[in-house]
Amino acid sequence: MTTVEEKTISSERIYEGTILNLRKDRVTIKDGKTSWREIVEHSGGVAIAAVTDEGKLVMVKQFRKAAESVMLEVPAGKTEPGEDIAAAAMRELKEETGYSADKLEHVSQFFTSIGYSTEVLHLYLATGLTPGETDFDENEAIEIYEYTTDELMEMIDTGEIADAKSIVAVLTVKMKGL
Amino acid sequence: MTTVEEKTISSERIYEGTILNLRKDRVTIKDGKTSWREIVEHSGGVAIAAVTDEGKLVMVKQFRKAAESVMLEVPAGKTEPGEDIAAAAMRELKEETGYSADKLEHVSQFFTSIGYSTEVLHLYLATGLTPGETDFDENEAIEIYEYTTDELMEMIDTGEIADAKSIVAVLTVKMKGL
User: Fold this and answer.
1) What is the ipTM of this complex?
2) A103 — contact with chain B (CB < 8 Å)?
3) What is the C-alpha to C-alpha distance for residues B16 and A23, in angstroms, rounded to an integer?
4) What architecture is the A45-176 domain classified under in CATH?
5) Chain B contact for A28 (CB, 8 A cutoff)
6) By CB atoms within 10 Å of each CB, which of A58, A168, B96, B144 scores lowest?
7) Nearest Cβ partner of A111 from B2, B19, B163?
């Protein structure tokens, strides 16, 4: 068995929205057959593992409609059109937590839901933090917390942290021994 | 600032499909205002960190339309309606890699794209592997590989692995020292 590139035969536009679009592609698959792929188009964004001088990770808590619950996550957000990715990381960190970072390091990048979404997140490690004023988007309501990686590892075990990008961030910082 | 539950005022059904549905909710936000939330409904699934007796992680390679490229990932798939989650992990591991596992341990669970998708993945650690025949879905074309966690960590650094669930799996196995 080998991998087979799926060529698009036709594409149906289903929805164009604010944070995402949806399309349905008819594609070639193996053995000359065809199938359908439902694809969410998302412009992607950044997530930030921000580590304080005390070695704690800065976390934000907000209500998430998709989960119908309050979620504890690392700061994150969409990249704006034409915006440099590292600049987006600095901006989102400042907006959501008030912190500015002396040092920003690109750690990894990943599709969040490779089966159906074009969304790619870039994870940055931010250190040398200086506190300042937050600047939430008008429809954001966010609480800020700081935890050690050991506390966060425990929250992953209990399911209190249940967000993929945040788990990647916590495990990355834990592994780097920061 | 505190978190605010977003109550649904109205909900518009935009699409009902094969692997996902899309709806648009009008919700209450802070200060008595309202906003819109675009929500992808997805039934969720499983991902498997399968570690061989030689300490290698079993990976699968397949073309992914959302990425328009071949991706290296841990085995994963959707839970079938009414199916036990651990049984789904055993089934997907067998179908995609041929391996059966003596031991299956639930490691973590996470929303993949908390900003807009209801999809939750459950990550399992599978050990005590016995090889066997694969049983791909008819529209899957998959190659199987085995790598050490050090090799996989390097592939995360280079971007060759760029899939959130797979990064969580690799970092988890690396941290457990398997």
Assistant:
1) 0.96
2) no
3) 12
4) Alpha-Beta Complex (3.90)
5) no
6) B144
7) B163
